[in-house]
Amino acid sequence: MEPVNIIGAGLAGSEAAWQAARSGVPVILHEMRPAVGTFAHKTGDCAEMVCSNSFRSDDDVMNAVGQLHWEMRAADGLIMAMADRHRLPAGGALAVDRDAFSQAVTEALRAEPLIEIREGEIGDLPIEGNWIVATGPLTSDRLADSIRSLTGTEALAFFDAIAPIVHAETIDMSVAWEQSRYDKGETEAERRAYINCPMNRDEYEAFIDALLAADKTEFREGETAGYFDGCLPIEVMAERGRETLRHGPMKPVGLTNAHKPNEKAYAVVQLRRDNALGTLYNIVGFQTKMKYGAQTEVFRMIPGLQNASFARLGGIHRNSFLNSPTLLDDRMRLRKRPNLRFAGQVTGVEGYVESAAMGLLAGRMAAAQVRGDDLGPPPFTTAMGALVNHITGGAEAKTFQPMNVNFGLFPPLEEMRGGRKGRKDRYPAYTQRAKDDFRAWLATQ
Predict the structure, then answer these.
(1) Would strands 267-273 and 280-283 be described as parallel, antiparallel, or unpaired?
(2) What GO terms in the biological process aspect are recorded for it (predicted)?
(3) Which of 27, 199, 350, 396 fits 204 for a cystine, CB–CB 3.0-4.6 Å?
(4) Which CATH class is domain 4-155+322-443?
């Protein structure tokens, strides 16, 4: 039986390999790490999470990304299974111990008899065979050149930034306190999943001044930066207005200072647990392109972090993606060369779970082709189907940008057209319809 070859063992490639193998089709998973590294990756493990450790909301009734979680679980997704196994308290979000998670994904893939993992870089797009390209935002220069040569267009690009990680023991808990926003969570651990550092107005204003004045990473000559709005560096947000951060990642709502319950903070910096031991915390929403020296100086201005020790500082990297509406069909195949499928962030979806979901679909579609079948995408009333529809034709090609899953991608509910139904009515209706339609799609396979 012809194997499915997959380039890249990130979240999308790992999920694609798992799905194809579980369909009874042999898989060769090609990964250039650790032989060829990147500045962002630290290991050679599959599905390494290099930015946040969060899969965001796990609410499958009121949230589109939570619905995507549900669909991946329903489809026996490896990424969601390992995320659930290694989850950390994070209020209503699904956060994981990133090292344990990636190690578990790697072990599961190596234990699957139909999957062979081959180390080494693939520098040119293959002409023959059944291939999935899932190389993510850090596609090697050589392979990126091959993609550009084949597609006849310059790959679009934006810059994705990495948030810093702090050693928990260096956080001053006489200033900071543990609490999830609005005390969200079913357990005490969930309700105390975040560490909060309060700022008064003077502290906030001084922080903004320092942020704006700090030395930033320079771009290479001829390189432009088009940031994805869902992952803006904090200094770029600050440049958009002094109050922007206070209404974004530093919003003080839903929190009560345990040390000064009657004093309302002007702004709050939140840190989320990054490993199961609780020894590492990442600063939520604090992606940055400041130089390392500037980062330590500016971040130690945050009350509670004045003596912080950093396990990792923030960074920035180029994130390339295809103009998928012009290049891919609804089976995620390159129109110019249908033996090549693309999956993950390179297709123009944004986020860990969205990338993994595209890998899930690509793996199932590729395996179906090997078996002589044709598997179409889920209905675009589902979260996965809405994403595929967006990247393969639903979006305007001229203005195409990476997109997180959201209810704006779902077709309207006919019974709610023209009415004034609020989200409390609309969102559960969207997710119930999605669940019904996704179950029906799975039943056809």
Answers:
(1) antiparallel
(2) tRNA methylation; tRNA wobble uridine modification
(3) 199
(4) alpha beta
Is 9 assigned a ligand-binding role in the annotation? yes
Q: What are phi and psi of 278, to 5 degrees?
A: 75, 20
Closest CA to 211 of 289, 277, 95: 289
Q: Which residues, 6+ apart, have CB-to-CB distance to 392 below 8 Å?
A: 324, 325, 328, 329, 330, 332
Rounded percentage of the chain residues whose pLDDT exceeds 70: 90
372 is in an annotated binding site: no
CB-count exposure of residue 120 (10 Å: 0-12, 13-18, 19+): exposed
Q: Is 20 annotated as a binding residue?
A: no
Q: Which amino acid is at 141?
A: D
pLDDT in tens, 250-289: 999 999 999 999 999 999 999 998 878 888 899 998 988 8
125 annotated ligand binder: no
Give, to the nearest 10 degrees, the angle between helix 64-74 and helix 423-443: 20
Containing 144, the helix (H) or strand (E) segment is helix 141-151
Q: Three-state SS for 315?
A: strand
Delimit the CATH 2.40.30.260 region(s) of the chain. Answer: 162-318
Q: Which part of the chain has CATH 3.50.50.60?
A: 4-155+322-443
Tokens for 27, please give them. 């898989």
pTM of the model: 0.81
Distance of CA 53 to the CA centre of its chain: 9
Tokens found for residue 337: 């060369």
Q: With residue 95 as reference, give the H or E element that holds it.
A: strand 93-96
Which architecture, in CATH terms, is 162-318? Beta Barrel (2.40)
CB 271, CB 166: distance < 8 Å: yes
Rounded to a whole number of angstroms, the distance between the first and last alpha carbons of the chain is 19
Cβ-based neighbour number of residue 272 at 10 Å? 24
11 is in an annotated binding site: yes
**Placement of tokens 């220069």 in the chain:** 141
